[in-house]
Fold this sequence. Notes:
The structure is a homotrimer. With about 200 residues, chain A is an alpha/beta fold.
Amino acid sequence: MTREQQLADTLRALYTQSDEQLRAQYRRSLSFQDGMFDRWERARRLGFGAGASIYNSALVLGEVSVGRETWVGPGTILDGSAAPLVIGEFCSISAGVHLYTHDTLQWALSGGIAAKRSGAVNIGDCVYIGPQSIVVRGVSIGRQCVVAANSFVHHSVEPRTVVAGNPARRVGRVVGEGAEVRVELTSPGERAGLDLPLASHE
Amino acid sequence: MTREQQLADTLRALYTQSDEQLRAQYRRSLSFQDGMFDRWERARRLGFGAGASIYNSALVLGEVSVGRETWVGPGTILDGSAAPLVIGEFCSISAGVHLYTHDTLQWALSGGIAAKRSGAVNIGDCVYIGPQSIVVRGVSIGRQCVVAANSFVHHSVEPRTVVAGNPARRVGRVVGEGAEVRVELTSPGERAGLDLPLASHE
Amino acid sequence: MTREQQLADTLRALYTQSDEQLRAQYRRSLSFQDGMFDRWERARRLGFGAGASIYNSALVLGEVSVGRETWVGPGTILDGSAAPLVIGEFCSISAGVHLYTHDTLQWALSGGIAAKRSGAVNIGDCVYIGPQSIVVRGVSIGRQCVVAANSFVHHSVEPRTVVAGNPARRVGRVVGEGAEVRVELTSPGERAGLDLPLASHE
């Protein structure tokens, strides 16, 4: 048996064992890498705030700052490669969310001649960003905002605002505080688009 | 050479070897973890029905039941963490699909004070859910439905219905059975949105 | 200590070491597999053009051809399993993009009786495809096109065209060449949808 075959066998046994243990203890079955590496340890190593966590499958590029207790889901991209990306505390950065400070549109169109474009991104405290949403260079999102799932955000958002869609538009506001906080829609006609927000937060 | 360097070398040789073998045998080049761990073995271990499969990069949380022959793609999230998630047989759960029984909207807005919200999710038999679509807490999708790619589903769907968009709306129905089954649009105006459905099923 | 525990310990030490090194050298913190395996080496092994790269987390199925200098991001799916998939040079295939030559809609609806549907896909040179966009079987995208983020493309696109949305519609055109290349919107009313294009290209 080669060294590579031995490693493959041990890896498979390790995955089965650790996955069974995770299931027994937390009722979770993760991918190999998300199960093998600790989310809180990585957040500490990256200098995130106390209690923050980030899955192994997330990518963190450049200058990224994250506040305490913020949850960063699997498959996310936090891109501070071209300008600072700042994320507040108690945020839900749901699975598959991409936050970008640059794009390569003109790089591609010009056959590699034109430069990348860039701009800083700021996410306030207590912001919920739904799964698979995308926020682009130059955007600021105020505190206690909601970005519905699958949204595309290319304009800045005032505090306590709810946005949804591609491109994202204002569909409501956040009212109340603490345990009484809730979303209020701007009109009944927009109700269809408003139940959208959601996140994986396990 | 340190133990870590040795492991890195063997891992890279193992990946190259197994990837070349997969390409020669099945014309597929996968990520390290999706190539290393068997999809059918994991499905059996999770108690899924006979012939079901699930990529290693998928996350399975809490109470999740999956019927026979159902295909669960890479990068999917099956979240039964807050309430049961039940998926029927012969379903296509395409790559990047997220099925949620909870959200953390109020958790984030309240700074960690308000509880998560939850609701069971049911997916009937023979349902096609297109890539990167999202289904949220409390939704039931009847048998033989089609959810187009990139959709956001936050209302329940009657059997043999086609839905598309963000938020998802009814755009057609399913007619016929067996090899003659097909999609019928509700109006020509909606034709543009109807060719949508698709899946990776390799 | 078992062999599996030893491997887990060494894997974790290896990840921490190599992640710290990547951060120090390139200001990047990647997932385990995207950090461990070289992007340019995989592209060469898959026969892509000179200077092309592809993250480990990307899936490549069947017959896929990729031109020189093209960048293929993390979490992408290049599906040439049912028909050829051809991608030109200097393209940005952003993170989470799925390009499909088949779908399993009728397979699922028929309970496994009906066949998959298929069609070749062609992407011209110098094309920008934004994050989490989906292109389906039978579609050709001409050279120097822009597909905005989160789009769903199910019709072919003429050269130097900008498309956005779900389903994707024409919202502008590409003018100029080289360092002067830029996007021009078809009308001010569509401006909201036009700033969309972006990509992760690190």
